[in-house]
Amino acid sequence: MPIKRGLVNAVGSNAATKLRSQRGWFYGVNNTDNYGFSAVAGGIRYNDYPGSVGTVWEPMGQFGFWWSTMEYDASGAYYWEMNYASKEVHRFHFHENPNWGVQIRQYKVNGLSVRCILRD
Question: How far apart are CA 115 and CA 1, in angstroms?
C-alpha cells in the first residue's frame, strides 16, 4: 500500500523529517525517522522528459516520490513527495504543466517508489 493521507496526518507537523531515513539524503538533512518508516530519496524515472530521448532519472538523494492509492484519471495518479529542502510531505497529481514552456505529461508510465505498510 502506498503512503496514505492518514499516515501523514497522524505524524503531524514536520512529517517528512519524522518519516525520512537518517541516511541517503543530500545536504546534511537532519532526519529523525521517529516511526521507522525510513523514507529514502529514491528520485523518479521519467519516460517522457521534455527534450530527452528515452528515460531520464531525477537525482536520488534529493527527492523521494511515492504513488498514492488514488487515481487522478485513467492515465494519471496522485503521488506523495518529500525533498531535502522541506520538513513536510507534499501530495500532488501528475498533469500537463504549461509553465515549463512545453506540455509535459507525467503519467503512470513514470517510475515512482512504492512503500508497503503492514496493517494490524
Answer: 6
- 65-100 per-position pLDDT tens digit: 888 777 777 877 778 889 888 898 887 755 445 454
Domain boundaries, position 74: 5-100
Say what the pTM is: 0.75
Q: Nearest CA to 19 among 119, 70, 117, 87? A: 87
Measure the CA–CA gap between 15 and 29, rounded to whole angstroms. Answer: 14
Nearest to 64 by CA among 97, 15, 112: 112
Across 18-56, b (16+ Cβ under 10 Å) vs e yields bbbbeebbeeebebeeeeebebbbbbbebeebeeeeeee
Domain contains 82: yes
Q: Give the SS3 label for residue 57.
A: strand
Question: Is 67 a member of any domain?
Answer: yes
Q: Which residue has the higher pLDDT, 93 or 64?
A: 64
